[in-house]
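Figure 6 in text form: structure in, sequence out.
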């Protein structure tokens, strides 16, 4: 289905059995829960979805689960996070054949590419399929920075249509608009900068904590879109301690722990990630449980 890249896109978790094997049924149920909770789009196998931890056959299964769960209700976007450009091109082409609606493309994993190498990577993947692409810039996590002046050089690639800006610097959004006008759809990708990103012109939000709090997440979006800023700020202040979890190195474990606490899934992650333990776990649980205890009524 066509994508306008607007609204709340869930960076969805992938569910595993206790032995870390893929739990396709639970993953599909989780996708369905997110869609019922009001998300506008589903992103599978991004950072939160542990895409780089999945084998090729598992990636196919997760993408199929997303497509089956959606049933055409929301677009399904797959992460493209591979170690080589050739591998990224191969998965982009296969994802198109499997029925994905779009791609969220990351730089090559592990290698810290220089700007010209990074641009080559995105151009190559763009030519590997006909699917629309959201470029995912997250230098904090991946050590490769696609700056606004680099994004501008991709304007001649027709299938590169959106940018998920996760540099942790909301000034980048204004810089992108000043350099590229309305050429790209801009989405915020840092949960605890969501409201700031919207105010600066982002028309989409790829969220991690939406996995555990889809209704509240959607309400925040709707309030901001309606210009009901005081109500949006009040909700954001409740939500922000949770949203801070999205910026930690252990964001996947934190989000999955939140999923488990609200009954939406398991906290099982795939090694080398391990579940939170000790004081760190207790502090994250305190944040989650405080939010649950003070949860606002969800009504637009």
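Output sequence:
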């Amino acid at each position: 289905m066509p994508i306008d890249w607007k609204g709340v896109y869930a960076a969805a978790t992938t569910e595993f059995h206790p032995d870390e094997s893929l739990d396709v049924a639970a993953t599909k149920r989780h996708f369905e829960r997110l869609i019922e909770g009001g998300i506008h789009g589903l992103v599978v196998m991004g950072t939160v979805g542990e895409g780089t931890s999945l084998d090729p056959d598992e990636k196919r299964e997760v993408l199929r689960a997303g497509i089956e769960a959606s049933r055409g209700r929301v677009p399904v976007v797959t992460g493209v996070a591979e170690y080589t450009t050739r591998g990224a091109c191969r998965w982009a082409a296969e994802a198109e054949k499997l029925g994905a609606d779009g791609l969220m493309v990351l730089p090559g994993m592990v290698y810290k590419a220089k700007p010209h190498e990074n641009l080559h990577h995105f151009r190559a993947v763009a030519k590997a399929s006909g699917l629309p692409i959201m470029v995912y810039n997250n230098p904090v996590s991946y050590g490769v920075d696609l700056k606004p002046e680099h994004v501008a050089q991709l304007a001649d690639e027709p299938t590169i249509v959106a940018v998920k800006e996760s540099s942790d610097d909301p000034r980048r959004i204004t810089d992108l608009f000043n350099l590229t006008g309305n050429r790209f759809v801009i989405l915020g990708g840092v949960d605890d900068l969501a409201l700031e990103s919207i105010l600066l012109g982002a028309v989409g939000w790829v969220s991690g904590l939406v996995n555990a709090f889809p209704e509240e997440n959607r309400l925040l979006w709707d309030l901001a879109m309606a210009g009901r800023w005081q109500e949006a700020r009040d909700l954001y202040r409740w939500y922000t301690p949770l949203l801070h979890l999205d910026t930690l190195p252990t964001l996947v474990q934190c989000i999955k722990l939140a999923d488990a606490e609200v009954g939406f899934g398991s906290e099982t992650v795939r090694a080398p990630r391990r579940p939170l333990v000790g004081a760190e776990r207790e502090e994250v649980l305190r944040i989650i449980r405080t939010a649950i205890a003070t949860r606002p009524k969800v009504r637009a």
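Caption detail: The chain is about 45% helix and 10% strand.
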